[in-house]
Design goal:
- The protein is an alpha/beta fold.
- It has 16 helices and 16 strands.
- It has helices spanning 2-16, 18-27, 70-73, 82-93, 103-115, 128-143, 190-194, 204-214, 239-249, 268-273, 299-302, 324-336, 339-362, 388-392, 397-408, 428-445; strands at residues 49-53, 56-59, 64-67, 121-125, 147-151, 196-199, 218-223, 226-227, 233-234, 253-257, 279-282, 293-297, 368-370, 375-379, 412-413, 419-421.
- The strands form four sheets. The chain has a seven-stranded mixed sheet with strand order 4-12-11-10-7-5-6, with helices on both faces.
- It is globular, with a radius of gyration of 22 Å.
């Protein structure tokens, strides 16, 4: 019966998206697998989007949907925000790139230094992957140590040291309180694996034991204040504070990956939790919808990038670093984000997560909702989700697929693992639309029990 349910949803998807199906066949002739982004692909073929405005997107077949993923959390103001479009047009008319700085990058750097509590200096780059990679390199250069620490399941982009134990096979991952370092991709060397120390998220006792053992060659720990790819898992109360104490006591640099969690509050997750890291990796919302990334942090550590007196300790080029169009879009975004904006998103997020939890309870559906502020994720388990391993127990690919296509066919776009985030243009109507579509799914489950 469950297969019959999915078959009906897939039939409806085929009916609604004939152009996307044709476009995908063409794309497969020129792109490996027909796409350029792993996360955006789903079987049998992905949507092809034509335009977006506010919190809605429209595909090439003319289907409009509420966007609950916002280009992987990056579009906090939604699509085609008028102020961003105006800023980009005005900047582009004057030239799109120069082998020289512009005041746009200075202004955005100043704004980030003023808003993010721990940031005294900023270095711009072009992606979250690069931001995490350069933060790690800066920590190694500053300390003279070779190893890095990361949380099991933590995603910090696709650079070699970061792409370790992101989705580890638990049959090979070792003990929960002392995980093994496992490659997430072919092409990562054994030497790289030996330089990555994997730790369990939300277990300060285990982290402290590992750090004390590795401290002499451990340059840094990089952590998302809320784990994203692992399952939108917030830090337990006190965990980040413990992490700050442990790193300080053992002379280890603490890096917060706020590529996603900068949208938590005016000053990011670090302001919300009252914990100041040494370095912060940034991207997503700071680019206003354009490729962006940055490392920010204490002036003494950030000085490793300083080439004003000769060759920097960490040379860092980049043809599009501080690109004026990106900087203009980022400025137009960040200037619109007030404390009221973040409060609005948090209220909507609370309503959505609470509404989903109530639905699951009323219908006796085995699922949990994680997230905080503007984020949400559905896990198919009745157990608490606190780290990568507990999140793995809630993975049900068949159920994800059924819900994903059910929502897609009813005008709701979420990421295919049933996770997402909100944007400022949203209101209660959009929250109720998602809740209504989910309730319809739960009702239909009675006719198609899985």
């Amino acid at each position: 019966m469950a297969d019959n349910f999915l078959a009906k949803e897939l039939k409806e998807y085929y009916r609604k998206t004939p152009k996307a199906r044709r476009y995908y066949r063409t794309a497969c002739r020129y792109l490996p697998g027909g796409t350029t982004r792993t996360l955006s692909f789903f079987q049998p073929y992905p949507l092809f989007i034509e335009r977006g405005r506010g919190c809605k997107i429209c595909d090439v077949d003319g289907n409009e949907r509420i966007d609950f993923f916002n280009n992987a959390t990056s579009l906090i103001l939604g699509h085609a925000n008028p102020a961003i479009v105006k800023a980009v047009r005005e900047r582009a008319k004057l030239g799109t790139a120069f082998h020289a700085p512009t005041m746009h990058e200075v202004e955005l750097a100043r704004l980030l230094c003023e808003r993010i509590p721990s940031v005294e200096r900023v270095r711009f780059m072009n992606s979250g992957t690069e931001a995490a990679m350069m933060a790690i390199r800066a920590a190694k250069a500053f300390t003279g140590k070779n190893k890095i620490g990361k949380m099991e399941g933590g995603y910090h982009g696709s650079a070699d040291h970061a792409y370790v134990s992101v989705h580890p096979d638990l049959t090979q991952a070792g003990p929960a309180d002392s995980p093994r370092s496992l490659s997430d991709s072919m092409g990562i060397s054994a030497q790289t694996l030996s330089e990555v120390v994997v730790m369990p998220f939300n277990d300060a006792g285990a982290v402290e034991r590992i750090v004390k053992k590795e401290r002499d060659d451990l340059a840094c720990i990089i952590v998302e204040p809320m784990m994203g790819a692992a399952g939108i898992i917030p830090a337990r109360q006190g965990f980040l504070q413990d992490l700050r104490r442990i790193t300080r006591e053992n002379d280890v640099i603490l890096i917060f990956d706020e590529v996603q969690s900068l949208r938590h509050s005016w000053g990011g997750a670090q302001e919300m939790h009252g914990v100041l890291p040494d370095l912060t990796a940034l991207a997503k919302i700071i680019g206003g919808g354009f490729p962006s990334g940055a490392v920010g942090g204490k002036a003494d550590i950030m000085s490793v990038f300083d080439s004003s007196g000769g060759r920097a300790k960490v040379p860092h080029g980049g043809t599009f670093n501080g690109n004026p169009v990106t900087m203009a879009a980022g400025l137009a975004t960040m200037k619109q984000l007030s404390r009221k904006s973040f409060a609005h998103l948090s209220r909507l997020g609370d309503e959505l997560r609470g509404g989903l939890a109530n639905l699951f309870d009323r219908y006796g559906y085995k699922a949990r909702v994680t997230g905080e502020t503007s984020f949400f994720k559905v896990h198919f388990t009745d157990q608490e989700v606190v780290d990568y391993r507990s999140a793995r127990k809630g993975v049900n690919k068949e159920e994800e697929r059924k819900i994903f296509f059910h929502l897609l066919n009813r005008g709701i776009f979420v990421e295919s693992q049933i996770r997402g985030c909100l944007s400022v243009p949203m209101g209660r109507a959009e929250i109720h639309a998602l809740l209504g579509a989910m309730e319809d799914y739960l009702k239909r489950q009675k006719a198609f029990p899985g």
